[in-house]
Amino acid sequence: MKKYFLLFFLLLLLPLKAVFAQSDGSQNNNEMKVFRIESDEVIDHDVFAAAERVDIEGTVNGDVYAAGGQVYVGGTITGDLLVAAGQINITGDIGQNLRLVGGNVTINGNVGRNVSLAAGNVDITGEGEITGGLAAAFGNLNLTSPVGKYLKVAGGNLTVANRVGGDVEAAIGVMRLTPNAQIDGNLTYWSDNRSSLDESRVAGQVYFNRTDMPARGRVRDAVGRVGGAMSVGSFIFTFILGLVFLWLFPKFTRKTVGVLREQPMKSFLWGIATLFIFIFVFIVLAVTILGIPLALLLAFLYGFASYIFRIPVIYFAGSWLMQRFGDEEREILSLTAGLIIYWILILLPVRMLATLVVTFMGLGAAFLAFRKKQPAASATARGRKKA
């Protein structure tokens, strides 16, 4: 559910600027609703694309970050591919890792390293090959491609119809091994009922764990072994959303980061104040029948702001870390470093505290940045950059 929540917010930003990219100008649609790299194009650097439809038929010598309603990749990507979309179709070759979050996913190409995905329906066909391992969270997964290493999954229905070169760990509703399946390692699965499996398809041992009511902790443990596919999906979505935010609102981001540098405590306190203001206004509106729709709209806007304004805080944390190591401030590296710091914190027992601090600081800094005059903010940003 969380991946669809994040997808909604990302797509909400797309109409503001339908397509953005650091490529050699691949947009062919006058309304800027389609991003396309033609089959004869060769891009020698990373590509960032957000549109209603993304088509990559050419060659990208670098990483690709794509978001939209539909993403189709039929070309060659020598680096990583990270995608957040409703419909994802991969028929080309990916040189490194493949990270996907979407509704319906089809993979029909070769992947040089590992695949991590979170989706509703997944079809990985036999014409391609995953050299590394596969970690996935899904509703339905049909796996007919060979997987070179491990398979770690959590979902509803799983069908394995090809070779898996390592161990298989699955927290699953129903699992099926076809006559073409071959698991070179052990098979460990958690389910309500034992599946009718042809255990001759497994070279190692088969371990079944029943997920009855007193043993739900074992289900959570199994899902944890999946490698955090859903967390990986959320990480990817937040990263892509951060790229969109930085691209669309660079001046506002600089202003907000400047406020965080100068007034971190004031930002935090103002963020807490916004919560009380929201509660007060919501109650005032909700007590009347006519005000209920406005109260719901206000709740939606406050929730949206609470999530989106975390990005400047995450970026600020990453830029601070880069400066500590003596590196110059670069947007993508700063965002990545900050997001890693944030994700580490929310995986620790301090998750709630970290989330509240980041949220309130983001809300407060954004509020103060809106109030701050542009010339003063620009001067502050320049001064900090020189320092």
From TrEMBL:
Domain of life: Bacteria
Keyword tags: Membrane, Signal, Transmembrane, Transmembrane helix
Signal peptide: 1-21
UniProt entry tagged with the keyword Membrane: yes
Transmembrane segments: 226-248, 268-290, 296-318, 330-346, 352-370
Classification via InterPro entries: DUF8173 (IPR058486)
Protein's UniProt keywords contain NAD: no
Pfam family for this entry, one: DUF8173
Boundaries of every DUF8173 domain copy: 229-372
Record-given protein name: DUF8173 domain-containing protein
